[in-house]
Design a protein that fits this description.
alpha/beta, Rossmann fold, Helicase, Ruva Protein, domain 3, 5-stranded parallel sheet, 14 helices, 11 strands, 47% helix, globular
């Protein structure tokens, strides 16, 4: 639906008022987490976009702590699944248990039935478990016996994986990785941030308690408001050009990329880029999307959707290098 300038102005005012919970949420999580504002912003974008987020980083970067703190700051149900090679699908989604007294089967729901599901070290799970999680992520429902159960709303899978240790791991298939709206690579803290982390952990003081400060109704209302954010047709075309440049680089004068790209982004990449750009606009208290919103989240949305050839790996060319070249070549509206 075409919006007038007055509609967009009113929407921006509503976002400015309703979006106050973002600052409250960030302050509450900041009581426990030092730095990592980039990671927290990406988790909030996933929350506003109703999309799952994959975090990748070496151990000790507070990935799990950030996710747990975020869930504690929201009035919602949180569950954590520690993925191991011996995990079974029933350990995630639940199972049917025979009740001798009633001579009947009863349903025992698994930890997937929560608002926030932390899938810790997801790449350690075998294929059967990953496929069970895949159905829940995509369909937002679980079938136990003859009955299908809808998952809670909002339902957000926040998964972590360690890129260093490859023993006993099962790389996520492309079909499952594509279900994550973003793959966020978590970096090291700065020197000042690390100094604060040391002080917090060696002073022997009790850890700060994260209190629930935001309701689920506020999250759902913000998510619905995010969908209303105006995106101009030129910005839509900009998103399409970026995605198509990963598929047909020669058409965008990127002939050098043709030998290094095995396959480009799927249409899900275009959808998620648009959704994440709207969420970024919401965080910036705006009722409309600008090209900078798209550029700021482009790498995290597309990095796991581009396949590279052996030639690219031999030359140490990464998906990030490809996306940066695409952003440098595709003209902004």
């Amino acid at each position: 639906m075409l919006k007038t300038a007055e509609d967009i102005r009113q929407l921006s005012e509503r976002i400015g008022y309703s979006g106050k919970f973002v600052d409250i949420l960030q302050n509450e999580v900041g009581k426990v987490i030092v730095g990592q504002s980039y990671m927290l912003d990406r988790l909030l974008i996933g929350l506003l976009s109703n999309g799952h987020v994959l975090l990748e980083g070496v151990p000790g970067l507070a990935k799990t702590l950030t996710i747990r703190s975020l869930s504690q700051a929201i009035h919602g149900k949180f569950s954590r699944i520690q993925f191991t090679p011996d995990l079974l699908p029933a350990d995630v989604v639940g199972t049917m248990i025979y009740n001798q007294q009633r001579a009947d089967f009863i349903v025992r729901k698994g930890p997937i039935f929560a608002n926030f599901v932390l899938a810790d070290e997801i790449n350690r799970a075998p294929a059967k478990v990953q496929s069970a999680l895949l159905e829940a992520m995509q369909e937002r429902q679980v079938t136990l016996g003859d009955t299908t159960y809808k998952l809670d709303d909002p339902f957000l899978v926040l998964a972590t994986q360690n890129p260093l240790d490859q023993e006993g791991t099962y790389p996520l298939p492309e079909a499952q990785v594509d279900r994550f709206i973003m793959k966020v690579v978590v970096g090291y803290p700065s020197k000042k941030e690390e100094q604060l982390i040391i002080r917090q952990n060696v002073q022997g003081l009790s850890s700060p308690v994260v209190n629930p400060v935001v309701s689920m109704q506020e999250i759902i209302a913000a998510r619905n408001m995010t969908k209303e954010i105006y995106m101009d047709e030129k910005v839509e075309q900009y998103i399409i050009d970026i995605v198509f440049a990963t598929r047909n680089p020669a058409e965008y004068k990127l002939e050098k990329l043709k030998p290094v790209i095995s396959y480009g982004s799927s249409p899900r990449g275009s959808i998620n880029l648009a959704m994440a750009a709207k969420a970024q606009a919401f965080l910036n208290k705006r009722g409309y999307v600008i090209p900078e919103d798209v550029r700021s989240i482009c790498i995290d949305v597309l990095r796991h959707r581009i396949g590279l050839t052996y030639e690219a790996e031999a030359e140490n060319i990464t998906a990030v290098n490809v996306i940066e070249q695409v952003l440098g070549k595709v003209s902004m509206p």
